[in-house]
């Protein structure tokens, strides 16, 4: 899923045709946020939710257990079960802790600081 999101970002990042601006009026003097920035922040927030949410974590664990069940070699199956039960939760915790949508969109130069502030203000106003 993360690869798909990154692929879509690359498409938007390389094509100027997609760089449209959404005009928003607010009390903070910030007016413009690009669609690609909003898409990046929303997509990364959704991906972070899928990594951190307990329901989805259980789904990943069940999927990994089922994957291990398909292995024919008992020795490899035991190794798979051990790594799934011991390391998969740690891996998901590590990914969830470093996966910050604002930083990712800034690092890819999809958003600037003003757009991120505006997106955060809009998100907080909707709550």
UniProtKB/TrEMBL annotation:
Domain Saposin B-type: 33-115
Coiled-coil residues: none
Protein name: Saposin B-type domain-containing protein
Keyword Signal: yes
Superkingdom to which the source organism belongs: Eukaryota
Signal sequence residues: 1-17
Keyword entries, A-Z: Disulfide bond, Signal
């Amino acid at each position: 899923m993360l690869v798909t999101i990154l692929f879509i970002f690359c498409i938007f990042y390389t094509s100027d045709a997609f760089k449209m601006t959404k005009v928003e009026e607010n009390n903070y003097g910030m007016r413009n946020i690009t669609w690609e920035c909003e898409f990046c922040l929303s997509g990364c927030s959704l991906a972070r939710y899928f990594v951190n949410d307990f329901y989805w974590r259980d789904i990943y664990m069940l999927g990994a257990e089922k994957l291990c069940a398909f292995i024919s070699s008992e020795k490899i199956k035991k190794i798979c079960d051990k790594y799934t039960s011991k390391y998969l939760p740690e891996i998901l915790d590590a990914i969830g802790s470093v996966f910050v949508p604002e930083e990712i969109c800034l690092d890819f130069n999809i958003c600037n600081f003003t757009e991120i502030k505006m997106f955060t203000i809009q998100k907080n106003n909707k709550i």
